Amino acid sequence: MTLREQQEALVRALVAGGPVPPGFDPDEVAAAGAVCRHKRDAHAGHAEGVGSERRPRDRARRGR
Length: 64
Prior knowledge:
It is built from three helices and no strands. It has helices at about 5-15, 25-45, 55-60.
């Protein structure tokens, strides 16, 4: 398996629920995947005008 194929498999496991590639800890991949999906969804919602996922303290720093 080439490096590119390994990276693609890891990305699929992280964000698309694909199988965990050999050599990776399934629990660690699941935890990292949850973070990746949360960040992706938060950014997608912000881009669509659904609302920001910023924390209140972030808005306070910006004077809002």
